[in-house]
Amino acid sequence: MTRLADEAVYRRWAGFASREERIVAYADKRAGQRLESMEKRFAAWARRYPDGWDEATMKLVWRRALRLEADVCRAAGVRPAQVRRLAWTGSALRAAGAASLSRAER
């Protein structure tokens, strides 16, 4: 989020970020414990950090996040409402968690 708020950082990132970096940045905006819409994620951030940014900065970050979403979704050929976790991700995440626990127990 801070990348979207800082003018110099944002300009540099927006000008040179790879497609992969943009996808990861977008995923970060949409996913917490669950995949949520940008509206829900931004509302959660506003509740969690009420003294974070002033209103003008929050609006700027929101506009930039929406542009990021539009760019990534357009490149993927989907609408934001179509973004979802694929069916295999739940079992893959559970397997990764189990493997991590197994290594920790050794």
Describe the structure.
With about 110 residues, this protein is mostly helical. The chain has one domain (about 1-105). Helices cover about 70% and strands about 0% of the residues. It is built from six helices and no strands. α3 (about 20-30) packs across α5. The model has no long low-confidence stretch (mean pLDDT about 90).
The number of domains is: 1
Number of strands: 0
Gyration radius (Cα, Å) is 16 Å
Mean pLDDT: 88
Please provide a brief summary of the model.
With 106 residues, this protein is mostly helical. Helices cover 72% and strands 0% of the residues. The chain starts with a helix and ends with a helix.
Keywords for this entry:
mainly alpha
Architecture blueprint of SSEs:
Blueprint: H1 2-5, H2 7-16, H3 19-30, H4 38-48, H5 55-76, H6 89-105
Helix pairs in contact: 3-5
